[in-house]
Amino acid sequence: MIARSLSAIALAPLLIWLLLGGSRFALFVLLLVAGGVLLWEWLRMKEPFSPLIHVPLLLAQSLVLYTGYRGYPGWIGLELMLVLLGLFAWSLVEYKPGEMVSPRAGFRFMGVVYCGVPLVLLDGMRAMPHGGALICLLLFVVWATDTGAYLVGRKWGRSRIAPSISPNKTWAGFWGGTVLGTLVGWVGVLGFGLPFTGIQGLVLVLVLSLVGQAGDLVESVLKREAGIKDTGQLIPGHGGLLDRLDSLLFVTPVFYAYLRLRGSGVPLGAWFFGS
Question: Is 95 inside any structural domain?
Fold first, then answer.
């Protein structure tokens, strides 16, 4: 608990300062480094380091991030498709009779998408009006949800949500995380002066809190499948960077999609039922 708290105290102010006072380029550099660490931890969950595979994938993910930063998002789909084709081609080299190579190629490709695309969206969010505040709001919801779930679940947690997936996740922790994440997010909406109406902002941060907890459970499934407890030991008290950012990787696409739909001027219902 002490190591966990000290890590948060040391890292949070630096990140908030970077978002509210730093440049977009500085954030891009941070995302580039974080993306490399995330993908590294992802790949190491199921296979040892292989320079012929891991290095090209790290470079490809960096290219995806750079393409987004330079403002050419239309190229990202093509780049990801080329990565997938390259992995399928490499599966011919790795093929051995009796082995399944397609799940391995799929896992590697999923790592590039899962660990890279949300970071591209964070960079795109930073370029929006109130961009730094929007990312801070996202972080506050995720951090508060994680803290509430940890503290409440540790003290009052009895009934487990999914013992076969994560024995430490309890319903008490779920409600504690949801309440604290929603309250802190709502305070963030008001404190940053973000352009969300009262009920709209409240529902938004509630949904983000719930999605973040789903992301945490998904990573627990993946770690259980890989037979590991943590993806790394980079952050004391938290494990690897992927352990710390699993919720953020889930909520970022949801929040970004909402912001784009809201900024498009088209009523949300029109996307599903027509104008």
Answer: yes
